[in-house]
Amino acid sequence: MGSATRTRKAFVLTALGLAAAGMAYGDARADPSALWNIVHGQCVPSEEGGRGPGPCVSVDLSGGERAGVAILKDLRGDAQMLAIPTRRITGIEDPQMLAPDAPNVFAAAWKARKQVEGRLHKRLPREEAVIAINSEWRRSQNQFHLHVDCIAKNVEGALAEAAPLLDGTWREMGVKLNGRAYLARRLDSADLSDAEPLKLLAEGVEGATAHMDDYSLAAVGATFDGKPGFILLANRLTADGGGHAEDLQDHGCAIARFAR
């Protein structure tokens, strides 16, 4: 990264205020390797040693450590889970995630919706579940991790109206979500086992591959023509904010408490 780019990023971060980005394991002053130390130093050795995944909820090493994914209960929220590769991958900007052998962390995150439901003691319809990753500049941890939690009620309503207009091409949404402009596209997939949202972003949005560090991404469960799918949402960091798709979630899961 050139010095001019670093200067621009520093300005953006100053304008945003890193404390406002407060994430899973504390603010920007927290150990940025905390998640990696937990997964690599505790969960994986415990699982391999036959003692279970603790302190993680689960550790899948069926494809080896390079393809493995751990699920960890976030310290924030009633039910929020984190899906974390057991391989060292820094974040959304890491080119490993665009390689052919990248672990499909999104598919593992979607499975972790069951752990979210377990915490809520209630089934969570797919339209109410969100997987999100923040940009490099709006996170506190330098280990790739996906946030799995409930959708914010106002976001669910906006996406329900937009869903019929979406197709397989990335387009600007006609409405803002929590005050931010997002690119959106439809993805026909039941569980993300046959699709990788990060690669779809890199391949489908001009210039995205070179600026993945600026992007945040979310996958929201959806139903199209009676078939399961997802709405993918991408947002790029700007001087006045953005780059924080976690904003689409409600860590209090108020939507799960509404009577139906």
Strand and helix map with partners:
Layout: H1 3-16, H2 34-48, E1 58-60, E2 69-73, E3 81-85, H3 105-111, H4 113-120, E4 129-133, E5 146-150, H5 153-162, E6 171-172, E7 183-187, H6 197-204, E8 215-224, E9 227-236
Task: Offer a concise description of the structure.
The protein is α+β, with helices and mostly antiparallel strands. It is built from six helices and nine strands; from the N terminus they run ααβββααββαββαββ. Mean pLDDT is 90; it is low at 3-8 and 10-29.
Folded structure, characterized:
- The protein has a nine-stranded antiparallel sheet, with helices on both faces.
- The protein has 260 residues and is of the alpha+beta class.
- Helix content is 24%, strand content 19%.
